[in-house]
Design a protein that fits this description.
Layout lengths: L2 H11 L3 H23 L2 H17 L10 H34 L9 H20 L4 H10 L4 H8 L3 H22 L2
Length: about 180
């Protein structure tokens, strides 16, 4: 491991945001390209990559320097993808079992109640986004409500792509915390 990498990891373990940013810049392409080859979908590869860095940064103190940092990130990325596949399989298995047991295929279209629940959840989520401070609020709105790419967000906010990625990671974490508090 190079001294620079070791310094960034040490600083990240101490909560240094520039170190997180440097690690994200250094390894984003490795993780993203790995996942893109696995899933074949840019959006899904990007989502898994964001989740990978979020998980890695939240557990950076567990990183063991005797292993390659890149390998550690790729391993986290693989586990996230496997977890996603398992969740999809469980959903499909559950749906298939219900259909076989009932002897008919249920109408999967949303009911009026489903629409009402989705609207209430959407309203709650929008209120939570409104509670975010800048720049978190803006980055979430641009990414998920306006469906802008990272490049477009960087241009709109006049920040670097790595700052977009880090800001989005933090915003999602804060939003997740708000959501868990609201659902207690």
């Amino acid at each position: 491991m190079t001294d620079s990498l070791e310094n960034h990891i040490t600083a990240a373990k101490e909560g240094n945001q520039r170190a997180f940013s440097a690690l994200l810049d250094a390894y984003w392409s490795d993780v993203y390209n790995f996942q893109l080859k696995r899933v074949g979908d840019e959006q899904e590869a990007e989502d898994i990559t964001v989740q990978t860095f979020a998980r890695a940064f939240s557990k950076i103190e567990l990183y063991d320097a005797q292993y390659s940092f890149r390998t550690w990130l790729i391993t986290i990325s693989k586990r996230i993808h496997i977890d996603m596949l398992r969740q999809q399989d469980e959903m499909l298995l559950h749906l298939g079992t219900e259909e076989r047991e009932s002897g008919w295929i249920a109408d999967q279209s949303p009911t009026g109640e489903d629409h009402l629940i989705m609207q209430q959840q959407s309203d709650t989520l929008l209120k939570m986004i409104g509670q975010l401070k800048e720049p978190y609020k803006t980055v979430i709105e641009l990414r998920y409500l306006q469906e802008k790419s990272y490049k477009e967000i960087a241009e709109t906010m006049h920040i670097t792509m790595s700052n977009v990625k880090v800001t989005l990671l933090r915003a999602k974490k804060i939003l997740g915390e708000l959501y868990s508090v609201a659902n207690r």
